[in-house]
């Protein structure tokens, strides 16, 4: 694998999960694989988990790591072609990318959706420019439409905790005060659609995701009905995807907050969220603090996810 921007690029998911299990049990078995190799992590947006887990993963593989926070310490970057650069951005991405490529062997990029122009976001303009102009393997640390390192960690976690062969997975929209991208829910749906698990997505009307991602998922607008018999509840907020409402917050209805009453409808489901999470908007304190909450082991699997993917990239260089 040269670039990693979608969970679907893993191909055989079961094999990839087995590779992750090996990495988890033997985190330092490949210390030589990344020797004298440098990972450059580029953040256009903030991060806690992705930053720490990817850096740790690279160090476990013996890599050197450099981190660049664009707009904080580096020159602000213009990303559009044709712009007269007389504003506050002194450097263009089209020069910056090849320069970055000269300083490293592998590049990780975090560049969220801008949520104003759906075509621009869904064409993944920024990460695709890194792939085109850096000359180096590029992987997504969350791009405009997908967060595959998160999804891989989610799938590893479900594999570890599932009690039946084909668990019922419910992804539920939950309220949030600000407009968030669709990358995590898109990517999670893409990942679950690679399994034979039962898959239900529940959200208020107007929050339909791109069917290219939701695929075979059953869409249920009644959240309580969706929760019945669930083995895993995956909560996430996202902004509207469809038409003229793209990127808008249509509802902050706290009737959609995941609480213990709704969790009681499930098959003693595990609660999952990619974090960061807004307590008592997305999920109540008692649910996230309950024994069924697996958000911390889910986050811990981000190291395993990143290390497995980096190992695959290094193996194919
Ligand atoms: N889940 C996740 O990607 O967390 P960060 O935004 O903190 O990296």
Structure, described:
With 317 residues, the protein is α/β, with parallel strands linked by helices. It contains 12 helices and 11 strands. 35% of the residues lie in helices and 15% in strands. Strands 9-8-7-10-11 form a 5-stranded parallel β-sheet. Strands 2-1-5-6 form a 4-stranded parallel β-sheet, sandwiched between helices. Helix 1 (13-25) packs across helix 12 and helix 6 (148-161) packs across helix 12. The longest helix has 21 residues, at 295-315. Phosphoric acid mono(formamide)ester binds next to helix 2.
Widest β-sheet, arrangement of strands: 9-8-7-10-11
CATH architecture of the largest domain: 3-Layer(aba) Sandwich
- What is the terminal separation in angstroms? 9 Å
Report the radius of gyration as a whole number of Å.
20 Å
* Ligand names: phosphoric acid mono(formamide)ester
Number of DSSP E strands: 11
Write a concise keyword list for the protein shown above.
alpha/beta, binds phosphoric acid mono(formamide)ester, 12 helices, 317 residues, 2 domains, Rossmann fold, 11 strands, globular, five-stranded parallel beta sheet, four-stranded parallel beta sheet
How are the SSEs ordered, and which strands pair?
Layout: H1 13-25, E1 38-43, H2 49-60, E2 64-69, E3 77-78, E4 91-92, H3 93-102, E5 106-110, H4 118-122, H5 125-133, E6 138-140, H6 148-161, E7 168-173, H7 183-192, E8 198-202, H8 211-214, E9 218-220, H9 223-227, E10 232-236, H10 260-263, E11 270-272, H11 285-288, H12 295-315
Parallel strand pairs: 1-2, 1-5, 3-4, 5-6, 7-8, 7-10, 8-9, 10-11
Helix pairs in contact: 1-12, 2-12, 6-7, 6-12
The structure holds phosphoric acid mono(formamide)ester (CP).
Residues 47-50, 142, 150, 274-276 line the site of phosphoric acid mono(formamide)ester (CP).
């Amino acid at each position: 694998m040269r670039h990693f921007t979608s969970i679907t690029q893993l191909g055989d998911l079961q094999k990839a999960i087995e590779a992750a299990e090996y990495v988890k049990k033997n985190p330092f078995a490949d210390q030589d694989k990344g020797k004298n190799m440098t990972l450059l992590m580029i953040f256009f947006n903030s991060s806690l988990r992705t930053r720490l887990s990817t850096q740790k993963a690279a160090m476990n593989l013996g890599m050197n790591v450099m981190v660049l926070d664009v707009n904080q310490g580096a020159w602000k970057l213009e990303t559009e072609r044709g712009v007269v650069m007389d504003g506050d951005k002194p450097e263009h991405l089209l020069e910056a990318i090849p320069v970055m490529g000269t300083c490293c062997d592998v590049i990780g990029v975090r560049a969220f959706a801008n949520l104003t122009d759906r075509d621009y976001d869904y064409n993944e303009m920024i990460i695709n420019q890194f792939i085109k102009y850096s000359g180096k393997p590029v992987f997504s640390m969350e791009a405009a439409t997908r967060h595959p390192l998160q999804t891989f960690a989610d799938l590893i976690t479900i594999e570890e905790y599932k009690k039946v062969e084909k668990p019922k997975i419910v992804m539920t929209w939950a309220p949030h005060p600000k407009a968030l991208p669709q990358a995590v829910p898109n990517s999670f749906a893409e990942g679950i659609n690679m399994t034979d698990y039962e898959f239900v997505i529940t959200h208020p009307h107007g929050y339909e995701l791109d069917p290219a991602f939701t695929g075979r998922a059953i869409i249920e607008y009644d959240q309580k009905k969706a929760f019945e018999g669930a083995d895993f509840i995956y909560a996430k907020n996202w902004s509207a995807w469809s038409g003229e409402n793209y990127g808008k917050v249509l509802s902050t209805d706290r009737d959609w907050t995941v609480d213990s009453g709704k969790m009681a409808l499930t098959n003693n489901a595990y609660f999952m969220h990619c974090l960061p999470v807004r307590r008592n908007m997305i999920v109540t304190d008692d649910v996230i603090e309950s024994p069924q909450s697996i958000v911390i082991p889910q986050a811990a699997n981000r190291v395993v996810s990143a290390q497995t993917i980096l190992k695959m990239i290094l193996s194919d260089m």
